Amino acid sequence: MRENKRIMILFLTAGILLLTAFHLIADQGNNYGRKSNRKFDKKSVTKISRTQIESLIKNIPIKPLDDVERSGILQMREEEKLARDVYNYLYTKWNIPIFSNIARAEETHMNAVGVLIERYHLDDPIKSDIPGKFMNSEIQRLYDELTKAGSKSLVAALKIGATIEDLDIKDLEDLMEKTDNDDIKIVYQNLDKGSRNHLRAFYSQLRRNGEDYKAQYISENYLQKIVNSERERKTIIKDPNFKF
Q: What's the CA gap between 137 and 159, in Å, rounded?
């Protein structure tokens, strides 16, 4: 009787060890697992406080906008929505925290551009915030293409994330060169910092899984400068002429 009991305990212990080994192997093979990325993903998020932005620019004189400045603000309002909507879509598709976490940050970026919309009494292109719907036909085309491409695989989805941040950085830095309004520059500077941090996050996820990303909008040298530098932890950029 005692011998049978001892054999049963040995079988049970072996079964537990085998099951534990199986889960360890599965976890190692799934580097995108929610548990393994939660801490990392929280660090990757760069939110922008609307209150801080409003306080920072409220005493900056309002100067007239030219057509480029006006269209740039409207473009970035929808471009930040593009990022949020694509990431929310990809989170629904792949259930990976990096997408939902950064999507929440992108909503704060939308709100930061909304401060400029209100400040300059512009006609907000986001009249009804319907996911995946845009007034700008080019941005609508991008949404359709990016969500389709990101649905093919998880790696493709992470590369779409890097692509969106790559595009944001290019557009923001081009627009900063075309305005002399310090309030606009300050908002763009903080969006740009957020995009650099988000690009670092997507790039790091890809590299951790043996994948790579090549710059599509900014230069490859600039991409490498960004991803090989530390995450920017400063809460808000106050200098309109800040240089990364």
A: 23
Which residues have CB under 8 Å from 143's CB, separation 6+? 82, 85, 86, 132, 134
Instruction: Return d(Cα 194, Cα 235) in angstroms, integer.
Output: 10
pLDDT tens profile 170-216 = 999 999 999 999 999 999 999 999 999 999 999 999 999 899 999 99
Backbone CA torsion sign across 141, 143, 144, 145: positive
Residue type, 147: T
User: How distant is the alpha carbon of residue 2 from its chain centre?
Assistant: 61
Which amino acid appears at position 149 of this protein?
Answer: A
Q: Can you give the pTM of this predicted structure?
A: 0.82
Question: How far apart are the C-alpha atoms of 159 and 149, rounded to whole Å?
Answer: 9
Answer yes or no: CATH 1.10.10.10 is held by domain 34-227: no
